[in-house]
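Operator note (shift B, R.M.): manual run for GPI transamidase component PIG-T requested after the automated queue skipped it. Running by hand, logging everything below so the morning shift can see what happened. Input copied straight from the record, untouched. If output looks odd, do not overwrite the archive copy; leave it for review.
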Amino acid sequence: MRLTEQRTFAGWPRLTIAGFALASMLLVLLSLSIAVARAAPRGGRLAADTFDEELVLHDLTAQESSGQRAVAAKFHFTLTHNHFANEDDDASQAGAKLNQMRYESDTATSTSTQRSSQGEAASSDALLPSRSSDSEAESAELVDDYSAFPRVVGQIAHTLGVQSLRLGFTQGRWQFDNWGLEANHSPLFAPSAELQASFYVSANLSTPQQDSIVNQRWAYLRNALAGLLCASLNSIDESITHTPAVLSHASTKFGQDIRTLRGVLSHETVCTENLTPWRKLLPCRSQASLASLISGIPVVDTLYTSISVELSTACLNTACTQRRLTLEQTLLAVIDPSRSKLFALSNASNIRACPAARSSIVSSTFNVSGASFLAKAFQERIVVNANAWVSLPVPIRTQRFLRGSVNSPGHLVTQLSNLDSAPLSVLYQDVVPWFLPLYSYGLEVTTYSVNGMANLTALVQKSIRPSKLRGRPTVIELSLVLPANSTTIISVPCDRAFLHFTEYPADASRGFDIG
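Run finished. Output pasted below as returned.
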């Protein structure tokens, strides 16, 4: 009996080890099956992210009146991501469910905002467009399938209901008279930081409720992008934020409205601290692909530098349960090859390809053989394509100035010259800060033809939103038809508001930015 117990006791460890080994194998197989199931497209419908990159070189020396050597380098990166709703829901039911969920969350947001205005503190969670369990499940499903597309951008777009977004940082001024107008993917912003975003809101809400919700999402978006790109976008307050009248209110067929806001920071320009996080949005960052040619040298070495981020969403079916996110990142710089070190093109012999890139195109509009600022091995990869850079003549020349003495009311004058031989329809938009109040009753639009005769028929439609003291700016939008070879002068009386000493800019010699 004792021997039998010993045999049983001795055999037990062997059985236990075998059982543990079998259980471990089953767990490994189960984990692999789960991983494969997650990685596999749901029903064969989820497409992978795509990433395309392009570098275009264009010699601007022939167009430079001063004879200074100038080469334009344009990096353009395009990323797409497809999101599909849960297959368990019918397409129409999923679309209706999403709209109802957003309507309920927006209503809750508006209610909480009204309560906070009465003295009750509103929860920060209520400021977001959706916080229900269904939306959390949808958000979790949304971020599961990111590969090349930056997840943080997708989360921002989904959480805040962003329909489109356009952000740009610019250093220097584009010389339109010498360099012309580049037509393909060129963020020709003014020397500033410019942010414009459109949001989805429920059409069942009233206008004040929509305004409250959009303003809260706008604040969240500014703070998120400020942290993402190391910029002072959170400084865009009410005094420099406006709604373009032409984009003020748009509707979709999915029971949603689109509201647009725009803000400009005149003193914020591009810097290397913006360039580094901008590159980190790319799949391979700066370790591979064409982005590795962008070095961290300060951008003051360039004649002009502009970086931009543009996000857009598109519905792939009638219920808008299938959406495509498209992110376009563009860097456009004009460099002097003899002194600029911003682009390490002379060390571009061994560029590693990015595994996520579907296509990598390097093209030039001129013959780069023998160029001292290009590596010889890199020259062999460049395709000479005259159509890679489409330079258009500038049809309109603009000039603006303030007329009058310092201590008396004056006039804000804008001159538009149509250089084309055909009439042009233009939309003129001007945003003037509150400390320069405009008197819209005195607005005058006068057009002079080639022979100097005045013609008062250029103005078609106008929209003027007056400013508020220490609040929103004045927004003027004019729809004009400029006759051929004519000059149109827009003049509006203005005044200067009394400022507190704390409202003066830090750099007194620089003056004030008035748009």
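Quick read of the result: Residues 50-388 form one domain. The first strand starts at residue 50 and ends at 59.
Leaving this for review. - R.M.
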